[in-house]
UniProtKB/TrEMBL annotation:
This is valine--tRNA ligase. It comes from Cylicostephanus goldi (Nematode worm). GO terms for cellular component: cytosol. SUPFAM superfamilies: Anticodon-binding domain of a subclass of class I aminoacyl-tRNA synthetases. CDD domains: Anticodon_Ia_Val.
């Protein structure tokens, strides 16, 4: 960009203004992101029409997504081992709940990718493959399968490895049209069937009929468990607990069906919520002795609430002081923004983008304040 400016027909004054604008827009330059990340970003932008406002940071985000794919395949190869022999995938009937869940998610991804590509809906296509790889496969399934492969039974490990390989290999073929170079390189490192072609480029694209694994009930169960996990993670973050600090977790639910759901997914909750143990209790049968003292309590919904054991892990008095200090700083920031908004000439003198930014900033601070107040209430109780 700088060379284009200096080789153009701008006079010295205009050149200086243009160079200052580039320095302001790209203070650290434009990072190298690779052709696959750029292609993926451009496909994601297609809904905007012919002219797009390309955000370099978004392209860089997709470069980090490429790194995530590298890490996921590297993890898969480590878990499979050097002696793993790929075989045509068939449901054995011995799959765990999480195996069935990821098979259902990959089936949905295959269906949506085919639908989106046939309709030339590249924006939705990139969203589908991005969500499958990042949120379903990397964030949930890979984490849930670690304890199974490291310490599960031989049969459970065999089934988990077959499911893992099947989903990763399918995922690479799904993303291949958008990231041909990266998917080719990673696919070449995977074990292959004798029937596989020499390149992913000439491999058949996954067809919906080949993935009859959808299971809406299990997906709903895992979604409920993930709502518990996200709440626990948020609460742990409020108390600045690291993943190495394990806590006891007590989940209280309103009916037997919710209890059955969470009990069946205790291994997932223990892994993703960094818990020593997880107990699922019916609210109708809870006694004062059911949940020990020194717990932080938070209500997730009308169906469920959780208590996290903090006794001996944090100093309650010190934590309350620290949270109070954070709350005061946030309140001061909110008051400053409100003062600006209440000025008589605020609407006329402050540009619209700045006003929008101030409103978003205030809303984020209010959410953070509410979170801190909930953490303080839980500790005080």
């Amino acid at each position: 960009l700088n060379r284009q400016l200096t080789s153009g027909n701008l006079d010295a004054k205009e050149l200086a203004i243009a160079q200052a604008g580039q320095a302001r827009d790209y203070p650290k330059g434009i990072p190298q992101c690779g052709t696959d990340a750029l292609r993926f970003a451009l496909l994601a932008y297609t809904s905007q029409g012919r002219d797009i406002n390309l955000d370099v940071l978004r392209v860089q985000g997709y470069r980090f997504f490429c790194n995530k794919l590298w890490q996921a395949v590297r993890f898969t190869l480590m878990q499979l081992g050097n002696d793993y022999k790929a075989e045509p995938f068939e449901v054995s009937g011995k799959e765990s709940i999480m195996d069935k869940w990821i098979l259902s998610r990959v089936a949905h991804a295959v269906e949506r990718c085919n639908t989106d590509l046939e309709a030339y809906n590249f924006t939705q296509y990139t969203t589908t493959v991005y969500d499958f790889w990042l949120y379903d496969l990397c964030d949930i399934y890979l984490e849930s399968v670690k304890p199974v492969i490291s310490s599960g039974s031989d049969e459970a490990r065999k089934v988990a490895k077959a499911t893992l390989y099947h989903c990763v290999e399918t995922g690479l073929r799904l993303i291949s049209p958008a990231m041909p170079f990266l998917s080719e390189e990673l696919w070449q490192h995977l074990p292959r069937l004798d029937s596989h072609p020499p390149s992913i480029i000439v491999h058949a694209y996954p067809e919906t009929s080949e993935y009859p694994y959808t299971n809406e009930k299990i997906e709903a169960d895992v979604a409920f468990a993930m709502s518990v996990i996200r709440t626990v993670r948020s609460l742990r973050s409020d108390y600045e607990l690291t993943n190495k600090t394990k806590t006891d977790l007590y989940a209280s639910v309103t009916d037997e069906e919710d209890k059955r759901c969470l009990v069946s997914l205790i291994p997932l909750i223990e892994t993703l919520a960094s818990s020593n143990k997880v107990e699922v209790l019916l609210q109708s049968s809870i006694t004062p002795e059911s949940i020990p003292s020194g717990c932080a309590h938070v209500t997730i919904s009308s169906r469920c609430s959780v208590d996290i054991g903090l006794q001996g892990i944090i100093n309650v008095e010190r934590e309350l002081v620290k949270l109070s200090g954070k709350k005061e700083k946030i309140e001061a920031s909110i008051a400053k923004l409100v003062e600006q908004e209440n000025r008589p000439d605020y609407e006329e003198k402050v540009p619209l983008p700045v006003r929008v930014n101030n409103t978003e900033k205030k809303e984020a601070l209010l959410v953070e304040k509410k979170s801190i107040e909930a953490a303080m209430t839980a500790l005080s109780g």
